[in-house]
Amino acid sequence: VTLGFFPSLAGFGPFGEHAVNASWIAVQELEKLGLRDDVDLHVYEVPVEYQTVQRLIPALWKKHSPQLVVHVGVSGMATTVTLEKCGHNVGYKGLDNCRFCPGSQCCVEGGPECIDSVIDMDTVCKRVSALGLDVTVTISKDAGRYLCDFTYYTSLYQSRGRSAFVHVPPLGKPYTAEQLGRALQAIIEEMLDVLEHSEDKINCQHEH
């Protein structure tokens, strides 16, 4: 059965003190592990540049029309694998790898202050935690007002909420690439399951 799920997975490239970006390594591990057979997975490495993100995210949606895009970023402050509930529009003051920051300090001028993912992250977190993986999964409502948050908001705005963002800690602090890859695999499979069930409910409501 092909359900037509085409998750595009985007990890970030190197920046600042992260000469090797754990998010990209984790995404490559996931690519090795694979997802269930009915999922067509597309993987991209995203440069840590505001203007590239503004161009690339709409292009990805246009090219693949995916049912879900999952972004993965590294956070030097994270000690768990963190599911981000929402993206924020305003407050981008940090310079990117090109020493650039948006003059308006926002993603989409006139856009809502905050956009939530259509995926219920609390449910995904509970389900993944119940699997007994050797990785702790937590929830966050603040993706940090840097490229991760900027990308997430841009993607949520483009997809009307059909995006997700996962923050991972730096490699070895405390998890290996393999542990992160396995955690991503479990998280994305649960996200797809939650998305399918919520869409079944929506379709039922439309039919009645």
Describe what this molecule looks like in 3D.
It is a single chain. The protein has 208 residues and is of the alpha/beta class. The chain has one domain: 3-Layer(aba) Sandwich (Aminopeptidase). The chain has five helices and eight strands. The strands form two sheets. It has a six-stranded mixed beta sheet with strand order 2-1-3-8-4-7, with helices on both faces. A two-stranded antiparallel ribbon has the order 5-6. Helix 3 crosses helix 5. It is globular, with a radius of gyration of 16 Å. The two termini are 26 Å apart. Belongs to the peptidase C15 family. Its main location: cytoplasm. This is Pyroglutamyl-peptidase I. It holds the Pfam family Peptidase_C15. It is found in: Cytoplasm.
Q: What is shown here, in short?
A:
The chain has 5 helices and 8 strands.
Which helices and strands occur, and which strands form pairs?
Blueprint: E1 8-12, H1 22-33, E2 42-46, H2 50-64, E3 69-74, E4 81-84, E5 86-88, E6 114-116, H3 121-130, E7 137-140, H4 147-159, E8 163-168, H5 177-207
Parallel strand pairs: 1-2, 1-3, 3-8, 4-7
Antiparallel strand pairs: 4-8, 5-6
Helix pairs in contact: 1-5, 2-4, 3-5
